[in-house]
Design a protein that fits this description.
Length: 1247
């Protein structure tokens, strides 16, 4: 290993790259003619190594390399062995390493000074963790370029290129889709916001961002990741301006640069527009789904609930998968009214799963991290805490050095970092501003003296005063160009804003604040504030550069609190004017500022605006603005909840009408998508088309209490283990409210298994009490029978006897048989006696089947009295495991071969030897083959012998295929006696996994040779298609070409079309289209519509337009519907038109179901044309989960006083019908009039 390779900490490619640079340097100095090419090549190698190979190294390789180097260093003097601890003399270590190098005298003289400088710089900056090697090398190159004036120009330029490649921001150029950050599948808006976030904190090679002094914290973070025993949860909490986001950005950039497996980075930022709840959850759900190799389902419910539920589900799956993952969330304090739910993570996380949450300290937090542990629900979890203290003078020196010259030179003057420490108090945000200001001075900055800094007041106040003074001096030639009043108004507006403001928004706000309707915001108005404001006012709204700046402006900069109050009032006035204009029709809905839709009601709440301002948000103009701009009612529901909460603070008499209006709007929104069947909700969660949270939301709002409880019970089984008991308890509370005692008892019985043992008995006792109140004997018997297994042994007999007594009183034999079957395991003798009194043999057989395991002999005797052979065989099949010999004797008495074969198949595992002979006596060849297939695992030799007497080659091949795992060599030999090459090929395919490779290849070659001799083109092509997938890639294509040639020679158009359609998917893309067109042409000439439809269905994905045209020529509606359903994903609009030509409503419904995921709105319109209830309900079930049909809002308005807290609109209207007369009788006619107006309005909004 070379000297510099050792300095690269054992990463071979990095070491080789640096070594090549060393060699290039030597050749350059010697003036070798190939020096320039060698130098360029060496730098290329470095770039390639850094950009590709280094990032491919996994943790184990890095760890092994580290051990290797440390072992090498054991031979070095003691000072150098302290390298890993970072406690050593770099100069001495460099000298000792150089001493070990086997250089000749001339080389040593020429290169030693440069190498020594490189080594000293690298060793001084050397990290403890391999992942930070690029950071150390970058620092070394920056210093080398700064100190080494004598470096040749070309070498300097190449080093500068390498410097750019090593810069943290280089990852953004190499990975523009942010795949390394887990964001390539995130919503585009969120990904762009994350990119802007990273660019802000990582800078660019041309414009580096000040950063430094955080090596110790980064080391701790890397140690946390490396330590398998460390807590899986990490928490970084710091005050605003402490450099938290800058640190996180560097950390995740290093992770991405090292291609860390499973990294997902989610910055939550108001400034960059990534704090919307839906975008966050979609980004997380998409990243985790990709990590698991799954597709992210499109929301068919409220997007927030859908993606949040999906994220929770898939994060849980990811923790169980064993795959490594690192989830990094920054800025959670900036989440817009939401947070991470406690159930996002299971209680116990694997060592390979890590989550780091970074957030600012919140007001009222007694401890930097305790408050956030509570918000996250991590109070009982072990958490790794990371502290972020202010920077010291040494750290400030690192920041200066990170910028290169001229600022790097300032770090050598110890007084300047010390003065910057005094001015900034070590706060990284303020340090960054000072450093950037110095950088803007260019070479003049190098002449900065400490005494110049001593004149400035410390803290944010000192910085701002100096900055404004300098701006005024800079613009002294045109004093009007610095309008301090306007700048203050802009700053205060941004300081109290709750999100980014577009230029038009800011202009309107300033007109209000200045009381000047004619005010025009100059285009360059914010130019003096560019230092502190992000955004362009058009695509990206204006927002303060950092939240800390807002805190400072509100608390210190504006000394008169009235200035802040006026700005807050201006937001309210802007909101008031806009809402009035919308409701009056003076402003079109699409012209409403998005800022007000997102944040307007929050400003009203913050300023405790008058009730009339809130009431205006429940009018049509504001509603239309939400629907038009946001595309749904979700935001409107949030505003109406705020209105309702404000109304509740006022007397009931004056706000009754407003509360009813709010309740109508919320219940109408809530009713969208109501009454989805319980089974559909559960299957939607299982199928992944609805998240668990969204399904639970709908379950809680189902109309009927029993449906609500049953839905929660079913969902409890699908919930995360940590949530199951909570949901089951919720279902218990709902079940107790069910009025019908039978329903209540059945729901409680279903609930019992989902509760812990301590609670289960209580539920069972309540179910028993309810069951005993059931008046109808049939229902009481059924419920008691279902309840019995859940009771303790001491109580069970009593209840079973009650159920049996009730069952005997049931007149309907079908119901009586059903109850008796449920009681069979508890009172078998009594049930058998009762069963023998059932006249209907089919129903009696059902009870006997249930009794078979408990009284086999008695049931056998009863079965022999059943005349119907089908039902007698059913009972004998159930008895086969218990009395095989007796059942075999009884089976011989059955004359029907189908029924007798069923019993023999059931006996196969128990009496195999006897059954072979019996199988031969079965007249029906198909059923005889069934029995032999069932016997194959038990008596393979006998079955093989019997198979040779089967005349039908198709049936013989079927039996041989069943024998393949047991007697592969014998089956191979027997297959040679099958005349049909196609059938023989299928047997060979079944043999593939069971024969040795050599034997299989030999058999395959023989089969290919035989196939090629088949005269019939259709059969030859069929056999070749069956054999091709088992061949190596090189030969597979050859055989497929042979199959294609044979297929094209098939004279029968039906056979040719069928074989071509079967063959096409196996062909290369370039050839597939041609063959598909041939198949389609042949299919069009098939006379049988059934066969033509079958071929067209296979071709649908390949030539959808042409297949649709051919499909419309099919007269048989059932065949046409089958092909249209296959075409639905490819041509939804055209299929929707074609389906209207199908008269049969059931067949039309079949196609509409296939169309539902693609055109839900259009399918809903089409379903109205279906007059028959059953097909209509089938289609409605298919479209019920689509968001255009169902737009549920996450509403939790408190409507208890009006009885509408959980009502659907129908229920709420029923309550109003009873309430309004009482309101009028109380003399509250105004409230009644307001209610009537609300009914008219909301009825028109939500018909």
């Amino acid at each position: 290993m070379t000297v510099l390779a050792a300095a690269a900490f054992g990463i071979p490619l990095l070491g080789e790259a640096v070594s090549l640079l060393d060699e290039a340097r030597k050749r350059w100095k010697r003036g070798t003619t190939s020096a320039e090419q060698d130098l360029g090549r060496s730098v290329d190698v470095i770039a390639e190594a850094l950009q590709n190979e280094f990032r491919e190294r996994d943790a184990e390789t890095l760890a092994a390399a580290r051990v290797e180097v440390l072992q090498l260093l054991e031979t070095c003097p003691p000072d150098l062995r302290q390298l890993a601890a970072g406690n050593f003399d770099a100069e001495r270590a460099a000298a000792e390493l150089i001493e070990k190098a086997s250089w000749d005298e001339q080389t040593r003289t020429e290169i030693e000074p440069t190498v020594r400088r490189i080594l000293v710089i690298v060793l001084e900056n050397f990290p403890k963790h391999p992942q930070r090697i690029p950071e150390a090398l970058l620092a070394g190159i920056v210093e080398l370029l700064r100190r080494s004036e004598e470096l040749p120009g070309e070498l300097r330029r190449e080093l500068e290129k390498l410097q750019d490649a090593l810069a943290p921001s280089a990852i953004l150029s190499r990975d523009p889709a942010l795949a390394g950050f887990g964001l390539d599948v995130a919503p585009a808006g969120f990904r762009n916001a994350a990119k802007a976030f990273l660019r802000e904190y990582l800078g660019t090679p041309e414009e580096p961002v000040p950063f430094g002094g955080r090596g110790a914290v980064l080391d701790r973070m890397w140690e946390w990741l490396d330590d398998a025993r460390a807590p899986s949860r990490g928490l970084l909490v710091a005050p605003a301006g402490r450099g938290k986001s800058a640190l996180v950005a560097r950390f995740v950039a290093d992770l991405a640069r090292a291609r860390t497996e499973g990294l997902v980075f989610l910055p939550v930022s108001i400034r960059f527009g990534s704090n919307a709840e839906a975008d966050f959850w979609q980004a997380l759900a998409a990243a985790v789904s990709k990590r698991l190799g799954e597709d992210l389902a499109v929301p068919r419910a409220d997007p927030v609930a859908h993606y949040r539920g999906f994220a929770i589900d898939r994060v849980s799956a990811l923790t169980e998968s064993g795959k490594p993952a690192i989830l990094v969330i920054d800025g959670l304090d900036e989440a817009a009214g939401w947070g991470l739910p406690p159930n996002l993570l299971p209680p116990d996380l694997p060592a390979r799963f890590r989550i780091l949450v970074a957030a600012r300290v919140q007001a009222g937090d007694r401890d930097d991290t305790d408050g956030w542990q509570q918000r996250l629900g991590w109070e009982r979890a072990e958490v790794q805490r990371f502290d972020l203290p202010p920077l010291d003078a040494q750290g400030i020196g690192e920041v200066l050095r990170s910028m290169g010259d001229p600022l790097a030179g300032l770090a050598t003057d110890v007084d300047i970092p010390q003065e910057l420490l005094r001015l900034t108090e070590g706060e990284p945000l303020l340090i960054r501003w000072y450093v950037e200001d110095l950088q803007a001075r260019g070479e003049e900055a190098a002449r900065l003296r400490p005494e110049q800094l001593r004149e400035i007041e410390p803290g944010y106040r000192g910085y701002f005063r100096r900055w404004f003074a300098e701006e005024e001096r800079r613009r002294c030639k045109d004093p009007q160009s610095l309008n301090r009043d306007m700048l203050d108004q802009i700053l205060v507006s941004l300081a109290v804003a709750n999100g980014p403001l577009l230029s038009a928004d800011l202009a309107e706000l300033l007109r209000v604040l200045r009381h000047d309707p004619g005010f025009l915001l100059p285009n360059d108005a914010l130019a003096p504030l560019a230092r502190f404001v992000l955004g362009d006012g058009r695509a990206l709204g204006y927002v303060l550069q950092h939240p800390k700046l807002g805190e400072y402006l509100r608390a210190e900069h504006f000394e008169d609190p009235a200035f802040i109050r006026e700005a807050r009032r201006a937001f309210v006035e802007w909101m008031r004017k806009t809402v009035h204009a919308l409701n009056a029709g003076e402003l079109r809905p699409e012209e409403c500022p998005r800022y007000l839709l997102l944040h307007g009601s929050l400003h009203l709440e913050e300023e405790d605006a008058p009730l009339e301002d809130f009431a205006a948000l429940v009018e049509n103009g504001w509603r239309l603005a939400h629907e038009t701009v946001e595309g749904g009612p979700h935001g409107l529901a949030r505003d109406v909840e705020a209105v309702f909460a404000r109304a509740e603070r006022e007397p009931l008499e004056s706000t009754l009408g407003l509360r009813i209006r709010c309740a109508l709007v919320l219940s109408s929104i809530r009713s969208l998508g109501r009454n989805i069947p319980v089974e559909l909700l559960v299957e939607a969660v299982r199928a992944g088309v609805m998240s668990f949270d969204a399904a639970a939301h709908h379950a809680r709002h189902l109309d009927a209490s029993d449906a609500r409880a049953l839905a929660l019970i079913e969902l409890a089984a699908l919930a995360h283990p940590s949530l199951r008991r909570t949901i089951a308890e919720e279902a218990f509370a709902v079940a107790r409210q069910i009025g019908d005692v039978g329903l209540r008892a059945r729901v409680l019985i279903a609930l019992a298994p989902h509760l812990p043992e301590s609670r289960r008995q209580e539920v069972v006792e309540e179910a028993l009490a309810a069951a005993r109140e059931i008046w109808d004997e049939e229902e009481r018997a059924r419920v008691l029978a279902a309840l019995a297994p859940h009771l303790p042994e001491s109580r069970r007999q009593e209840v079973v006897e009650e159920a049996l007594a009730a069952a005997r009183e049931i007149w309907d034999e079908e119901e009586r048989a059903r109850v008796l079957a449920a009681l069979a395991s508890h009172l078998p003798r009594a049930v058998l006696n009762a069963a023998e009194k059932i006249w209907d043999e089919w129903l009696r057989a059902d009870v006997l089947v249930a009794l078979a395991p408990h009284l086999p002999r008695a049931v056998l005797n009863a079965a022999e009295k059943i005349w119907d052979e089908r039902r007698r065989a059913d009972v004998l099949v159930t008895l086969a495991p218990h009395l095989p010999e007796a059942v075999l004797a009884a089976a011989r008495e059955i004359r029907g071969e189908e029924e007798r074969a069923d019993v023999l198949v059931a006996l196969a595992p128990r009496l195999p030897k006897t059954l072979v002979a019996n199988a031969r006596r079965i007249g029906g060849k198909w059923r005889r083959a069934d029995v032999l297939v069932a016997l194959a695992p038990h008596l393979p030799d006998a079955v093989l012998a019997a198979s040779q007497r089967i005349g039908s080659e198709r049936l013989r091949a079927r039996v041989l295929a069943a024998l393949a795992p047991h007697l592969p060599e014998a089956v191979l030999a027997a297959s040679q006696r099958i005349g049909s090459e196609r059938l023989r090929a299928r047997v060979l395919a079944a043999l593939a996994p069971h024969l040795p490779e050599a034997r299989w290849q030999e058999a395959l070659e023989e089969a290919l040779a035989t196939a090629r001799e088949i005269g019939d083109e259709e059969e030859r092509a069929d056999v070749l298609v069956v054999l091709a997938p088992h061949l190596p890639e090189a030969r597979r294509q050859q055989v497929l070409e042979e199959a294609l040639a044979a297929a094209r020679e098939i004279g029968d158009k039906e056979g040719r079309a069928r074989v071509l359609a079967t063959l096409a998917p196996h062909l290369p893309e370039a050839q597939r289209q041609e063959v598909v067109e041939e198949a389609l042409a042949a299919a069009r000439r098939i006379g049988s519509e059934r066969l033509r439809a079958r071929v067209l269905a296979k071709l649908a994905p390949h030539l959808p337009e042409a297949v649709l045209t051919a499909t419309r020529e099919i007269g048989d509606e059932e065949e046409r519907a089958d092909v249209l359903a296959k075409l639905a994903p490819h041509l939804p609009e055209a299929v929707l038109t074609a389906v209207r030509e199908i008269e049969d409503m059931g067949l039309r419904a079949r196609v509409l179901v296939a169309l539902a995921p693609h055109l839900p709105g259009a399918v809903l319109a089409a379903v109205r044309e279906i007059g028959e209830e059953w097909p209509r309900s089938v289609v409605l079930e298919a479209v019920a989960l689509h968001p255009t049909i169902r737009q549920p809002a996450e509403v939790l308005a408190e409507l208890a006083r009006l009885g509408a807290s959980t009502f659907a609109r129908r229920e709420f209207l029923e309550a109003l019908r009873e309430t309004i007369p009482a309101v009028v009788a109380m003399g509250k006619k105004e409230a009644a009039r307001e209610t009537l107006r609300a009914l008219q309005d909301v009825g028109a909004w939500y018909p």
